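Reading is simple: each integer encodes one residue's backbone shape. An example follows:

___
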Amino acid sequence: QEQVVESGGGLVQPGGSLRLSCALSGFTFTYYAIGWFRQAPGKAREGISYISTPDGTPSYTDSSYADSVKGRFTISRDAAKNTVYLQMNSLKPEDTAVYYCAAASDHSDNYLQLVAYDYWGQGTQVTVSS
């Protein structure tokens, strides 16, 4: 059974860093993309980054970021561990949210959209506060 499990959230001061992990297991097919989303209290869930394969092979060469995190967040993948990371630097109070990882089983024209994904983790809380 496919599982997506996030970890690494916590409390950090403004300007600090955190690294989130997304461990994937049970997948018997090549997922097209792994995306990171976040949802702040009272707000809609938003896509912030993804890593994807352009052709359905496990060669995840494409990545993208939302403008709100570009230059501060970096997505990466460890194939041996089947884990995707989100390195978050220069954190701001407005980055406070529950962060979710998701896997897409099919091609999409926009992997920053929720509808592109069909396997979701349970989320991990990130709080940026002094």
About this structure: The radius of gyration is 14 Å. The CA atoms of residues 35 and 50 lie 4 Å apart. The longest strand covers residues 18-25. The chain is about 0% helix and 45% strand.
